[in-house]
Amino acid sequence: MPLVETESVVLKTHDLAEADRIIVLLTRDHGLVRGVAKGVKRLKSRFGSAFEPFSIVRVEYFQKDSVELVALQKAEIVRSSFAAAGDPDFLRKFSYLGDLLISFLPPHDPNEKVYRMTRACIEVAAAGAGSLLPVGVYFELWLLRLAGYMPDWSRCRDCRRELDADEAADLLADLHVLCTRCGRAASNRTLHPEARGVAEAARIMAPGVFSLEMAGREADLVHLSAMLRLLISSALGREVAGEMPLPLHT
Ligand SMILES: [Zn+2]
User: Fold this and answer.
1) pLDDT in the model for residue 193
2) 1-49 residue pLDDT tens
3) Number of H helices, E strands in the chain
4) How close is the Cα of 170 to the center of ligand 1, in Å?
5) Taking burial as the number of CB atoms within 10 A of a residue's CB, which of 2, 72, 156, 197 is the most buried?
6) What is the pLDDT of residues 79-88, one digit of tens each?
């Protein structure tokens, strides 16, 4: 039974037995991991307050080949999100984003890019007021891209022509785009050129820079996010709940 040591992000916790909890972690080295933290609810727990939502913690756990749940042994806070998680908007946004990770990622499948992107987004959102909207859109885009669901929005699906920077596109049911020449005039799903510009900016920028660059572009971010929700729903095969308030301990 090997002892694993890795950095991780706390995504969610569920009550288990009297003093125990299941902790859902996005680990850097082993992807999504669910672990039992025995005695975590006791006053003098060895885990202290390490498992606050969206904190970055270094954990040690025992992994048995045949069992999906790992046995958490140690947790040490690398970076606490305690202050930020006191803000209901932060909590709602990251509960939603954490649920997306849990839905998209298979367990025990390491993906360091997703890990680094998640950690960076939490750090930017925790540090800067007003960054939740751009950080959320950045996260949705990158998760779709890294999970392999992001269509190429730079070219028309049918004629393969590269879209002009100021060209509106039709978003199709398969979530590819058509140019103005191939598109239907009465499309009810238009992907604005500004939203494609936002998506391109997110592709090349770090989340902190992106968040600053997007100041004053709320309408474009909201439009793009609505389009990304369609992609997410289609990828998951169900409607996504969006940012409904989610209970943390269910
Ligand atoms: Zn075309």
Assistant:
1) 94
2) 789 999 999 999 999 988 999 999 999 999 999 999 999 998 889 998 8
3) 6, 8
4) 10
5) 72
6) 998 888 889 9
Distance 81 CA to ligand 1 centre (A): 46
Cα 163 to ligand 1 centre (Å): 8
What's the pTM? 0.90
Ligand 1 centroid distance, CA of 151 (Å): 15
- Three-state DSSP at 79 gives strand
Q: b/e per residue, 220-241, with b = 16+ CB within 10 A?
A: bbebbbebbeebbeebeeeebe
What does the alpha-carbon distance between residue 134 and residue 211 come to, in Å, rounded to a whole number? 5
pLDDT score of 184:
72
Spacing, Cα 193 to ligand 1 middle (Å) = 15
How many angstroms separate the alpha carbon of residue 150 from the centre of ligand 1? Answer: 19
CA of 153 to the centre of ligand 1 (A): 12
Low-confidence ranges of the chain (pLDDT < 50): 244-250
Q: Which positions ≥6 away from 18 have C-beta within 8 Å?
A: 41
Task: Please name the residues in contact with 191: beta carbons below 8 A apart, sequence gap of 6 or more.
Answer: 153, 168, 169, 170, 171, 177, 227
**CA max distance for the chain:** 67
